[in-house]
Amino acid sequence: MINMNELYEASMNRVVDYIQANLNEELSLKQLSEVACYSKFHFNRIFSDYMGESVYQYIKRLRLEKSAALLQGNLNVSITDVALVCGFENPSSFAKSFKNHFKMTATEWRNKSAGYSVYESTPVQIERDGFSINRGSPVWTYHLVNAIWQVAIEDIRPLTFAYLRKTGPYHDDEILYGRLYTRLLRWAAARELINEETIEWHIYHDDPNITEDKNLRVMVGIPVMNSVAPSGSVGISKISGGKFAVCRFLLKRDEFAGAWSWIFSEWLINSGYEWDDRESFERCHGKKIINGNHFFDVDICIPVKAV
Prior knowledge:
Elements: H1 4-21, H2 29-36, H3 40-51, H4 55-73, H5 79-85, H6 91-102, H7 106-115, E1 126-134, E2 137-143, E3 148-156, E4 159-167, H8 174-190, E5 200-204, E6 217-224, E7 235-239, E8 242-251, H9 256-267, E9 273-275, E10 280-290, E11 293-306
Helix pairs in contact: 1-2, 2-3, 4-7
Keywords: DNA-binding, Transcription, Transcription regulation
Domain HTH araC/xylS-type: 13-112
Protein name: HTH araC/xylS-type domain-containing protein
C-alpha cells in the first residue's frame, strides 16, 4: 500500500535539498513544483502544510539567515557581495528585507558581530609550542584542565549520504538522534548498506544563534555509494567536500553546544581561517564510559578557507 505521508516527505526532501543547493539562484514556483513532481497549486499547498511557511517565505528566510552568517563570519566581504551571493536581486531589496527580519541594518549586524563574539565559552590559551604541522596540515593543541583538544585542517572528499531530516529543536536531545539513527540503520541494513565501520553523521545547515529553534534543520546520515536511490522518508544528498577544521571531543550530553561555541569563538577567530559557506557536521564514533561517566566520541567539522 502506498504511504502518502512518505510520498509527501520524499518530495519535500527533494525540494528542500534543491533549494539548499541553489539558494543563490532564481527559484520559481514552477521550477520547484517540477522538482516535487506536483502541479504548482498542489505543491504550494503541500509545502505550506509540511514546512509551516510558504515557499516564498521559506526561501527568503534562508537567504536572510545565510546572509547574517556570512556578515558575521566573513568580515572582508562587502555587504553588496553578500546580498548578491545570497540570491537577492539588488542591495536595496536586501537592505529592506534584512532590517525587517533582524530589526537592525546589515551594517549594524556586522558591527555587532565584529565587536564581540556571539558565542560564549571559557577562554582557553594555546601554548607557544601548541602549533605544529602534521603530514603537511596545521594542528593546534589546546591544554585544558581535564583534557587536551587538537584542531586539525582536514581535506574531506565529497561524499553521498543517506539521511533522515528533522526540523525543530534538537539541542541535547539524545532520544531524538537515537530514534532517527535507528530508523536509518534499519533502512540501510535491509539494503546491505552498513557494516561494522559505518559511523553516524549529523549534518547542520543553520546557526542556532541566528535561526529560531523551531526552524533548525539537522540531518542524521550515513555515507553510501553514489548509486543508492532515495526511498520513502530517507533522502539522498551530498557533502561538497573541501577543507574543514576538525576537532575530536569526548562530550557529555549537555556539552555539545559549548564545544561548538569554543571552536568558533576560541579557535576560528585566531586561526588565520574564516568560516566557509558549506555544510558543518559531526562524525560520531560511538559512546565511551570513563570513570562511570558516559561520553560521546565525536568529531566536530566546520568548513573553512584562508582569510
